[in-house]
Amino acid sequence: MTAPLAAVEVHDGGLVTISLRDEIDLANAPAVRDGIIQALPNHVRGAVLDLSTVKFIDSAGIRLIFDVARATQIHGQSLCLAVPEGSLAHEVLVAVAIVEVVPVDPDPVTALRRLSAEAC
After folding, report:
1. What residue spans define the domains of the chain?
2. Which of 17, 30, 31, 35 has its CA 20 to 30 A from that of 1?
3. Cβ neighbours of residue 76 closer than 8 Å, sequence gap 6 or more
4. Which residues contact 115 (CB under 8 A, 6 or more apart)?
5. What are phi and psi of 71, to 5 degrees?
6. Which residues pair with 16 in a beta bridge?
7. pLDDT exceeds cutoff 80 at 67
8. How far apart (Å, rounded) are the C-alpha atoms in residues 11 and 48?
9. Could you name the CATH architecture of 5-118?
10. pLDDT score recorded for residue 120
11. CB atoms within 10 A of CB 106
């Protein structure tokens, strides 16, 4: 099994895209959370959490997203999720009302544009 934390891409303006893949579940959520937090040092202004290739997410993965949202808020950072509409991850996140806490866009490019616009 591959590691769920696939890549961290740094963009101009203090923004990052953190791409996750495969499954986020009880077995790997703590390690994934640690990897995400390490990718968000204080100088990062905002992050896109890209779930485009996540095939499965359980309650531990959902909790991880709420925890990351809380951590970014505490540190004055912005967070957007990139989750394709119609995907299982999108359906799960809508069902648990993550959209009330974190903006959700259909792809990482749109989410990054949203973060860039918030900086203006």
Report:
1. 5-118
2. 17
3. none
4. 15, 45, 46, 47, 48, 78, 80
5. -65, -45
6. 10, 47
7. yes
8. 11
9. 2-Layer Sandwich (3.30)
10. 43
11. 15
Q: Which one-letter DSSP state was computed for residue 112?
A: H
Record the tokens describing residue 81, joined without a space.
């999720």
Query: 59-93 burial, b for 16+ CB within 10 Å, e for fewer?
Result: ebbbebbeebbeebeeeebbbbbbbeeebebbebb
- Sheet containing 78-82: order of strands: 5-11, 15-24, 46-57, 78-82, 104-105
pLDDT tens readout for residues 20-66: 999 999 999 999 999 999 999 999 999 999 999 999 999 999 999 99
Distance (Å, rounded) from C-alpha 51 to C-alpha 104?
10
Give the predicted TM-score (pTM) of the model: 0.91
CA–CA separation, 106 vs 87, rounded Å?
10
Which amino acid, 92?
Answer: V
Task: Write down the pLDDT at residue 6.
Answer: 77
Written as one string, the DSSP assignment of 18-80 is EEEEEEE-TTTHHHHHHHHHHT--TT--EEEEEEEEEEEE-HHHHHHHHHHHHHHHHTT-EEE
